[in-house]
Amino acid sequence: MQRESMEFDVVIVGAGPAGLATACRLMQLATEANQDLTVCVVEKGSEVGAHILSGAILEPTALKELFPDWKDKGAPINTPVTQDDIYVLNNAEKSVKVPPLFIPKTMHNEGNYIISLGNLCRWLAEQAENLGVEVFPGFAAAEVLYDDSGTVKGVITGDMGVGHDGQPKDGYMPGMELHAKYTVFAEGCRGHLGKQLIAKFKLDEGKEPQHYGIGIKELWDIPPEKHQPGLVVHTTGWPLKESGSHGGSFLYHLENNQVVVGLITDLGYENPHVSPFDEFQRHKHHPVIKQYLEGGKRVSYGARAIAKGGIQSLPKMTFPGGLLIGCDAGTLNFAKIKGSHTAMKSGMIAAETLFKVLSSETETKPEPTEFTEAYQASWAYKELYQQRNFGPAMHKYGNILGAAFAYIDLNIFNGKLPFTLHDLKPDYAQMKPAAECKKIDYPKPDNQISFDKLSSVFISNTNHEEDQPCHLKLADPELPIRENLPKYNEPAQRYCPAGVYEVVDAEEGGKRFQINAQNCVHCKTCDIKDPAQNITWVTPEGAGGPNYPNM
């Protein structure tokens, strides 16, 4: 197909913290050197921030480097952390508060801020545009472009107006080719193009499998008398420990009488009966959490996978024609439960590397391998190395003993123990047959503290054009009923936090696997956790998906 094309020096896929930091730093350098540089950011969400979901506590290290005057520029960062509380939840009623002395130092948040990462990205996009970056929301990068030598030369945006049968509808618009000297992929965790690039260029050769969690989050308006701006509450233990699963919760008090509450469930769980969504709903009924939510109103909901394998799972981040950065590569620091600052720093280093190469006199643009050395010399890489044992310790020893190990490793030895723990089994391969695991009877929602999936998806403002090709691809359409249902009671029904996957009665008898793709909140859990690795998430039509406000 003949497509229109546009030429840029750098194309960036994804308007998250990594991609926008790259764009801003590139244009800062160009301005300082009085050079012309064309930079484009494409974003699949309907607006910048629409698909951004994070806790979020911001460690402002990278932001201060990028914009030392961020306060004067009006960055939406208003709530400093004032108090850190950590609880071990013993059961549905009881808990123990952990004394500060015994908390791993990575969990202390002095100097950090409780923010909406979506709002920060909206602000970063404004800064990028002020610097001359072209930002295109509503355009999904659907395909990687390669030249004859196999070098990445850009991306193709998704076609608009294609019917479910794959045929053009009225108003059909073919996608556009965006050509670049370098392309930076910053799609966030489990980016679908990043996944392809890792496979094509064998970027994960010699690395451990990436590991993931699913974070489910709600935003609440709460009564003013319960609001404590700057209060941070983390928990571990119940309810996940009942199924032998790992993870933990967060509750942060923002400004304007709002709190965010969420649960991160490690996707290495073994019991196929586990439903991360339902674990979260019952978790909110624990007195430690419920005390802040009673009398309040839930105003938004969302879910997103996080990459937490750390430095052992970090792929090579350069390839001919571009870079893989931020959570697309897996730069999140799980020991801190924070990834925005490390993602931004990887983007800033990418920008500095690319600007240097683009400013050189050479006709051919080599693979930007200088990035690797610069990144490994940065505080972001050193931070990941220092905290490399945290995630594997949690998997090997559980949350309590793992936290004890982390305390010794980080607080006493400062991350300098003379060994590295390993976690070699992929998350999808951890699941045991349903017959070997205890069934879980989740309580019905009370519609005051706990809710069902469909009402939750409704307040995520998720919308897709219904007459479009399904963006959840099955390598073998018969496998869910033939294999996953008898062996695992088809876990997609439960690991999906949006009710996308159902097993229903077929008209001709038997069972049928139904995909409600219009419900998808783009969390990527199905792409990660399906035990047969039969599901591949690809981008739907641009602007489809959730529209998160203040998340």
Task: Give the SSE layout.
Layout: E1 5-13, H1 17-33, E2 39-43, E3 57-58, H2 61-66, E4 79-80, E5 83-89, E6 95-97, E7 113-114, H3 117-130, E8 134-137, E9 141-146, E10 152-157, E11 160-162, E12 168-173, E13 177-185, H4 192-200, E14 212-221, E15 231-237, E16 247-253, E17 258-266, H5 276-283, H6 287-293, E18 297-307, E19 318-319, E20 322-324, H7 340-358, H8 370-376, H9 379-386, H10 390-412, H11 453-458, E21 472-474, H12 479-488, H13 492-495, E22 501-505, E23 511-515, H14 525-529, E24 535-537
Parallel strand pairs: 1-2, 1-13, 2-8, 5-15, 13-20
Antiparallel strand pairs: 3-7, 4-7, 5-6, 9-10, 10-13, 11-12, 14-17, 14-18, 15-16, 16-17, 19-20, 21-24, 22-23
Q: Determine the mean pLDDT.
A: 96
The helix content, as a percent range, equals: 25-40%
Q: What's the total count of β strands? A: 24
Beta-strand residue fraction: 15-25%
Shape: globular
Rounded radius of gyration (Å):
23 Å
Q: Number of helix segments?
A: 14
Sheet bearing the most strands, described?
8 strands, mixed
- What class, by secondary structure content? alpha+beta
- Tell me the span between the first and last alpha carbons: 39 Å
Q: Uncertain segments of ≥5 residues (pLDDT<50)?
A: none
